Structures are given as structure tokens and as C-alpha cells.
Amino acid sequence: MGFLLIPLYTHYLSPKDYGILEMLDLTGNILSFFVAMGITNSILRFYGYYNTNEDKEEVINTALIFAILSGGCLVGLLCLFSDYFSRLLFDNNDYSFFFVLVFINIYLSQVHTHCKTTYRVKNQAVSFTVISIVTTIMALSLNILFIAYYGLGIKGLYYASLITFSITTFLLLIRQFYSTPKISFSFLKLVEMLKYGVYFIPTLLIAFIINFSDRYFLRYFTDLETVGLYSLGYKLGMIIFFLMGQSFQQAWGAYAFQYENDEEAPILYGRIFTIFLLISTYIAFSMALLSKEIVVVIADPRYLDAYKVIPLIAFAAVCYASDNITKIGILITKKTVILPLINLSIAALNILLNILLIPKYGMIGAAVATAFSFLLLPIISLTISNRFYKIDWEYIRILKLIFISLMLYASVPLIERLDWHYALPVKILIIIIIFPLSLYISQFITKDDISFIKSNFKLSKA
After folding, report:
1. How confident is the model at residue 460 (pLDDT cuts 50, 70, 90)?
2. Which of 55, 131, 327, 350 meets the CB 3.0–4.6 Å disulfide criterion with 381?
3. 354: how many CB neighbours lie within 10 A of its CB?
């Protein structure tokens, strides 16, 4: 839903306000890890573990009761320190009330998530989808009402979220407890769920550092307006990851493991990686080439400078999404203990680069740090993965794709000198004709690729 609200936020909030919103949201995200305690993952794990309906319902009710009671206590405690958080991030107490709103929204959203998870484990896909759609429509409508009509700014955003989650969570809780013949709580089950769920917190924190720590360094070394501009550019550049990475990841795991014992699997994985890289690189190249136009269309003119980081972030998104494939050898051979070490090293590198680059280069330095860190992630995963499970990566074709992309993107400074009436058609020409034609002339795309895509698409549908 965040992407859908970008036009609204960027037209009614200043870059500084958008920077404040980013800092509030990110701080709330960190704290939500500790409020949730991995209970959502525990519901998914333990609901299927038990055989009787009583035990299954007890898992859900235990998780919900724990979330309501412990989450409420923790959020209440956080509200007492709202002044401290305001001074820590903004050097004054002016945003204490905003933090109170953030903390309450954390609590409600976590309970809401737990309630929705019950529909996932019970395979009630239609109900889950309806709840998600209703929640989204309500939140969008209230955001438009409070921000565009009443002009409440950041407060309007949190009021909309507060009302949405209050209503939907209350209704979901009533339905859950009303439909349960006997509401029971098991301390033993809770202990087991916490033992399982708490280990997700370090993983989430490392992922948070890799993706979002640069905002805090930008806040410290620059100003809130820069944070706002960079945040917009980052979100737009990362659209590729949400379009390609997350959707692909859901299908890739089951597909990859299905063929892990096949003799042709190493060739299959290598070919899939090349095709995935082709599609994601084409999207990233298009976004990079049209980055200025995208910001002009989506955001207020005050946000124009956000386009400067989109190319680097789009490149980073491709690398980040590619890691889903490059680490397949580690997953197949069950050497997953290595993955946290890889991510931890990337997080440490990202922090170091942010400290070195942001003071001098601002948000461009942050984008470079992100791009370089994300580039190393799949490279390290691929290198280590190949030691356990040899895959036939198509290195020559990958280098061709990178070379063609860089050469064509090098024309951007020349194109930008033209009047936009001429520059835009030239960019579209490069994206639609010149880029694909260059791949064809270089023999990157072959008939075998087309046959491969068709056969595997049919296979996956079957």
C-alpha cells in the first residue's frame, strides 16, 4: 500500500515532512520486531504441527492473547519514552505525540497481522484476500480524507492507520474468539512458540540494517529534507525488487527444490538465473533511463532531485533480488548456517560505507553504499554456493548483458542536454528498440531461450 500512497504523500507533504515520516516509520519498524517476537512465524509453524483441532485453535488463541497482553504492555512502556525518542531523532520534544501514534499503530497492526495469519493457516484464501482488500481501501480512503481534504499532514496518515487497524482488528478478534468453542491458553505452547519465533529477530534486524540504516546516517550527517528525497528515490528504485524479487521468491523455492536431484538441474538453474537477470535488468534499465520523468509524473516538483538515486537503487534492487537464485546451492545442501554470516558481513560493510561516503556525498553516497553492498551479496552467495553445489552459470551472457546496459546508459548525459520533447522519445526508442536489438545482434537472446521459457512455463502451470 505504501507505493500507492506515494503520489498523495509527495503532493501534500514537503520533502522535510517526508523525511520525518520515514524516520518515524523506520523506528516503528525496528520496535515492531520486539513487539511481535516472531509470533506470526510461530503460528505458521505450530498450527500444522498439531493434529487435533483443539490444539490448533489453542496455538492461535495462545498467540493472540500473548500478542494482546504483552504487546499492550510493551507499547504502553514505549509511550512513556516518547519524549526520549523525539529528542534522539529530532533533537527536540516536538514529535513526542507522533511517536505515541507510531507505537499505538505498531500494537494494532501486529495484532491485526496475527488475526489475518489465522486465515492463512486455515487455508481460507478468499477471506484473507477480502480482509486485505477492505483494509487497503479503508486506509487509502482515510489517508485521502485526512491528508488531502483536512490537510492534517503526517498526523492524518497516522490517524488513518489508527482508525483502520482499530476497526478491522476489533472485528477480526470478535470473529476469532466467537468462532472458537473454547478459548484456551497454553503456557507450554507459548514457550515453544517464543523459542522458535525469537530467532527471527536477529535476521530481521540484519535485513533492516542492510536496507534502511542509511536513513539514520543521512539524518545525522545531512538533514531531514535529504532523508525525504532519498527515501522517495529508494522506494521507486526498489519497485523492481517488489515486482520481481518477492513474487519470484514465492515460486522459486518450490520450483528449484523440485529439480535438485535432476542431472540437468545445474544447467537449468544457470539458465533461469540468466533469464531472470535479463528481465529484471531490462526493467531496471528502463527505470534508470526514465528516472527523472517518473519523479516528475509521480511527485511534486520539490522532489525532483530524488531521481538522482533511482539508477543506483534500481541496480541494487536487481542484485538483491538475484540473491534468491545465487544462494540455491547453500539451500539445497542445507548449509543455511552460512547465510546469517553472509548477511552480517554485508550489513557491516554497508554501515562502513555509509560512514565513509554520506558525510561527503550525501544521498548519492548512500545510494553508492547500497549499490555496492547489494552487488557483493549475490557474488558472495554465488561463490560460496558453488563450493557445495556446482551450477553452470552463463558468465559470458551475463557479461554481455551488463556491457550492453552500461554502454547504452552512458548516453544519458548526452540525451539530457536535449529538450525534453526530444529527450523522452529518444529514451523510449532506446528502451523499446535499441536495447532489445543490441541483445539480439550480440546473440544474447536465442531461440533456445524462447523454447525454454515456453516449456518451463507450461511445466510450472501443469
Report:
1. very low
2. 327
3. 25
d(CA 458, CA 461): 5
In DSSP notation, 167-230 reads HHHHHHHHHHHHH-SS----HHHHHHHHHHHTTHHHHHHHHHHHHHHHHHHHHHHS-HHHHHHH
Cell of 105: 499503530
Residue pLDDT, tens place only, 176-194? 888 877 888 999 999 999 9
- Nearest by Cα to 33 from 223, 218, 199: 199
In this prediction, residue 264 carries a pLDDT of 87
Give the other-Cβ count within 10 Å of 5's Cβ: 16
Written as nine digits, the cell of 441 is 545482434
Residues 70-78: contacts with CB under 8 Å, at least 24 apart: 70/37, 71/35, 71/36, 71/107, 71/110, 71/111, 72/107, 74/34, 74/35, 75/35, 75/103, 75/104, 75/106, 75/107, 78/31, 78/103
Cell output for 128: 484473507
Averaged pLDDT for residues 257-270: 85
* Domains in the chain: boundaries: 6-198, 214-461
Q: Which amino acid appears at position 51 of this protein?
A: N
Average pLDDT, the chain: 91
**What is the distance of C-alpha 124 from the center of its chain?**
25
